Amino acid sequence: MIKKLADHKLLIICLGMLLLIIGLAFLLVTQLASKEIRLVVDGQAQSVETSSYDVGELLEEEKIELVKEDSVTPDIDKPLTDGQEVTVEKAVDFTLQADGRTKELKALPKTVGEALKYHKIKVGEADKVSPALSEPLAAGTEIVINRITTATQEVMEEIDFKTKTKDDDDLPAGTTKVEKKGEKGQDRVVYQITYSDGKEIARKELERETVSKPVNKVVAKSTRGTIQGKEYTKKFTVKAYAYTGGGRTAMGTAARTGEIAVDPSVIPLGTNVYVEGYGFARAEDTGGNIKGNTIDVYKNSESACLSWGVRNVTIYILSD
């Protein structure tokens, strides 16, 4: 009885092995049989007939060489079946300039950002990438990454003094004299500096504090000069009217050509002057309407006064 049971189990095992062998043989025959495959390489599709067992054998048969950056679907170790589609996407060459180095790399033709991510190239938020990360990657693309960094810097800056000029009636004509030397001041300044690949490209002032104020330089300048061979102590612009009619001046002299009416607070009576367009004259008269930088030149006739009119002229105060 026991012997019959053992023979029965042995029979079952033998049958199972036979069925397995038959299945494997069927599978092998099926795989080795000619199959029609739709092969798509970089978007270009073609139908190929092959007896290759898996994707890898098919690509070898079609002389399609792969690099690690290429994409194959399904995987190269997957068996082929009749009517199956195999897709190959070839990586493209591109150049990367970053961190002072140039690299020749490959990546699938997707976007610049995806290519950098594939090669684990980090891009900071402030970094500038050209072309932009969203731009498509094509063969021969040159990608440039400028590393943008910032830092603060505290410096002491010299502040230039200003030069102030003052008139001096006593200095000889054409001369100057330094009455006070200028001194530079100092400011403490904090800047935020922006660098591109280590080179400064922008500077922004964040804070400024005056440590010492500059002292202005004071230069006295002679108001003297010469006009028509005479030395003058100063000159300025006045509004000049004209009058006639004779009579006596405020100084008791006869009103005549060569005397003028002035505001004594501006031009003292008795001052010798030279009036542009009129000539040498002496301040001898005053008038109710002669105030400030205003004068009245004497003319011998009404027509001469009308011809003179009202004009702005330079008056020179003579030194004698």
Helix content estimate: 10-25%
Number of strands: 21
The number of domains? 4
Number of helices: 4
Biggest sheet: strands, sense, closure? 6 strands, mixed, barrel
**What is the SS-derived class?**
alpha+beta
Shape: rod-shaped
Q: What gyration radius follows from the Cα positions, in whole Å?
A: 52 Å
The amount of beta strand, in percent, is over 45%
Order of helices and strands: HEEHEEEEHEEEEEEEEEEEEEEHE
Provide the residue-averaged pLDDT.
Answer: 92
CATH first level of the largest domain: Mainly Beta
Give me the side-by-side strand order of the main sheet. 16-20-17-19-18-21
Give the low-pLDDT segments: none
CATH superfamily of the largest domain: RlpA-like domain
CATH fold-level name of the largest domain: Barwin-like endoglucanases
Label the CATH architecture of the largest domain: Beta Barrel
State the distance separating the first and last CA atoms. 162 Å
Can you give a write-up of this model?
The chain folds into four domains: 53 residues, Ubiquitin-like (UB roll) (Roll); 55 residues, Roll (Ubiquitin-like (UB roll)), CATH 3.10.20; 71 residues, Resuscitation-promoting factor rpfb fold (Single Sheet), CATH 2.20.230; 95 residues, Barwin-like endoglucanases, CATH 2.40.40.10. The model has no long low-confidence stretch (mean pLDDT 92). A hairpin with a 2-residue loop joins strand 5 and strand 6. The chain is of the alpha+beta class. The strands form five sheets. Strands 16-20-17-19-18-21 form a six-stranded mixed β-barrel. Helix content is 16%, strand content 45%.
